[in-house]
Amino acid sequence: MLKKYIEDLANNKEIFLEIRVSPGREETGFLGVMADGTMKVAVAAAPEKGEANQELIKFLAGALGVRRYQVEIKSGSSGRRKLVKISR
């Protein structure tokens, strides 16, 4: 599933992802895509002091093959729904 996003990033300077985060899970990982196209991601960190956001950034950077500074939460930093910008 993430292959599509990797290809999109290879063809564009940046992509935007809508993500629904499920914090406090046992493992961080991709859970699937919702009917509206929103990506679901489980995050092992608690939603305190930005820890879940940092874990999400770390996961996305590793999964998409970019550095952490290339992943930016544009909106929703304090909620479960986030708009994330990935640059190459």
Q: List SSEs in N-to-C order.
A: HEEEHEE
Q: How would the global form be characterised?
A: globular
User: By CATH's scheme, which homologous superfamily applies?
Assistant: YggU-like
How are the strands of the largest sheet arranged? 2-3-1-5-4
Oligomeric composition of the shown chains: single chain
The helix count comes to 2
Largest sheet: 5 strands, mixed
CATH-level-2 architecture: 2-Layer Sandwich
Q: Structural class of the helices, strands and pairings?
A: alpha+beta
Separation, N- and C-terminal Cα atoms: 19 Å
Strand content: 35-45%
The averaged pLDDT comes out at 93
**Structural domain tally:** 1
Uncertain runs: none
Helix percentage range:
25-40%
Q: Write down the CATH topology.
A: Conserved Hypothetical Protein Mth637, Chain: A
User: What's the gyration radius in Å?
Assistant: 12 Å
Question: How many beta-strand runs?
Answer: 5
CATH class value:
Alpha Beta
Q: Which features would summarize this protein structure in a list?
A:
Conserved Hypothetical Protein Mth637, Chain: A, 5-stranded mixed sheet, 88 residues, globular, alpha+beta
List the helices and strands and how they pair.
Blueprint: H1 2-11, E1 14-23, E2 29-33, E3 39-43, H2 51-64, E4 71-75, E5 81-87
Parallel strand pairs: 1-3
Antiparallel strand pairs: 1-5, 2-3, 4-5
Protein architecture, described:
- The model has no long low-confidence stretch (mean pLDDT 93).
- The chain is α+β, with helices and mostly antiparallel strands.
- The chain has 2 helices and 5 strands; from the N terminus they run αβββαββ.
- Strands 2-3-1-5-4 form a 5-stranded mixed sheet.
- The chain has helices at 2-11, 51-64, and strands at residues 14-23, 29-33, 39-43, 71-75, 81-87.
- A hairpin with a 5-residue loop joins strand 4 (71-75) and strand 5.
- It has a single domain (2-87), classed as Conserved Hypothetical Protein Mth637, Chain: A.
